[in-house]
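Q: What structure does this chain adopt?
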Amino acid sequence: MAAPAILAGLVALGLTVSAQAAVSPETVNGFPEIAGAGTIRLGVETIRLHGVATAAVGSAVEIEARGWLHRRINARRVYCHFDPTAELVNGARNGMCEIEGLDVSALMVEAGMAVDCPATSKGRYKIQQQRAEAAGFNMNERIPLPASCGNGSKKPAKKKA
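A:
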């Protein structure tokens, strides 16, 4: 009598594993070309660094960030993980990239070259941003948080009298 229940459980498990396999992250690696302050190219893939926002293109901070990124990761193998079924945004996929086991987005935020984007990072880089501010960077002025990232702070709702 227990055999049908066990069989049903195994089938459900098999479907779950199949579904997970269908959306497992793809990993690409190689020596990057810097395409922007938060964007790199690995071969044919253009990858936008996950969870961070960078300064406006052409601004002094964006140019500084591109240079920093070039110095930090140039001529080193970078590994980027992304959902291969995700939509391309401006020709790029969002990806979590690492170099020598370190999260490139975290390195950028801590160096004051990017800010945590809570809408996508879920606060993953909050500590690195606090460290950048402790090092003397006024991150709110340096890189204004875009509306797409949320405001990062939750104000309590006003109570009606």
